Amino acid sequence: MHKCIPIYYRIIIFFLLIAMSTFVYANDWSSWRGPNQDGTSSETDLVSDWSLEGKNLIWQADFIGRSTPIVMNDRVYVIGRIGKDITEQERIACFDANTGDMLWDDKFNVFHTTITFNRVGWTSPVGDTETGNIYIHGVQGIFNCYDMDGNIVWSRSLTEEYGRISGYGGRVHTPIIAGNLVVVSYLNVSWGSQAIPRHRYFAFNKYNGDLVWVSTPGGRPLDTTYSTPVVTEINGQRLIIGGNADGSIYAMKQTTGEMVWGFKLSKRGINTSVIVSGNKVYATHSEENLDTTAMGRVVCIDATGTGDITKTHEVWRYDGVGVGYASPTLMNGRLYIVDNSANIHCVDAETGKAIWEHSIGTVGKGSPVWADGKLYATEVNGKFHILQPGADKCESLSVQEINRVDDDHYVEIFGSPAIANGRIYFTTEERLYCIGRK
């Protein structure tokens, strides 16, 4: 005979289901900077070395990419390019995270842009841990939402609908998930309040693609940029904080896009992403400073202010270091930054004092990742580094140089590592790699 389940049992079951769903996503890497939006992972027992000959190499798959993959529900999603001459297209592909088998692949044409083909596939996907959906922003302005099986849930054409501006250089912004919103930014020129070209943030309903708000926090754009904002809470208020094409850092309310504060940093646009720890925001650039002749700066900002906080809320600065492409990571009170010449700087996060410096090559564009007491970092000229950061120096545990299949020349690496379930994933301009314990 059927009996009704008492209300308190139903409450217990409800919270158990929530706990189980949280556990499923605990080790996923659903955005390009990981679950903490700062390039850190709580995973342990990760490999300290690997080789192309097979040591700790779980699988590799042919794929031309220049961005960072994401990992959700035992699947790897990555954006890249494919084809030659008239068949050239951008694509998103989904791979089985355990075997490397391709599960689905969607290709779309490149149009309404002057971006060269070798820069197609600039952005990274972002995944929504609530729905399992994947969002991508293509160089031509296609903004698609996919379900985990590759079906398009909704699609917008940002260039055609909102006058998105695309430059020759290929800089395109990666979207972010912010509660029930998916937010993407770009330069645009349209009509009415958007008649003047500006760097604007567009927030869409993540379920159906409806436009919720548009924010224009900055002034005249100085160039095209690709700084990906982060979502955080400061003083009980949900904020979206990111670098702008006018050279400033802005904090906006998540629900409305209203600007809360701005911090002027550079005479050119900001390309790196900020990271947030408590009430502090860490930002970098490699261009001319506003108030000194030194090129480049790392700055720590007190994020509790309102309005223009440039002169009132700077905590410390580290000048004369050009960190214009790779975003920093932070762990145990130490900030790790990769400059444009591929030197890793370890900086005290409280004071800005430089602790040590370590070279990993000549060109630094990929952002470092901290996990299991180690730093995982890529260098453009085909090198993948595993490093042991110490109290006063950095030790190299492994350097794997990756050459092209058809000739003895390094393959370029622009993206960052993604870490999920004991494995490290990254792309080159020829392949997608998965390394870890077999």
Helix content: under 10%
**Strand elements, count:** 34
List low-pLDDT spans. 1-5, 11-25
Q: Largest sheet, described in full?
A: 5 strands, mixed
**Percentage of residues in strands:** 35-45%
CATH architectural arrangement: 7 Propeller
* Sheet/helix structural class: mainly beta
Domain count: 1
The CATH topology annotation reads as: Methylamine Dehydrogenase, Chain H
CATH class label: Mainly Beta
Distance between the termini: 50 Å
Overall, the morphology is globular
Instruction: Please tally the helical runs, counting DSSP H or I stretches of 4 or more residues.
Output: 2
Mean pLDDT: 93
Radius of gyration: 21 Å
Please state how the strands of the largest beta sheet are arranged side by side: 1-28-29-30-31
Can you describe this structure in just a few lines?
The protein is mostly beta strands and 438 residues long. 5% of the residues lie in helices and 42% in strands.
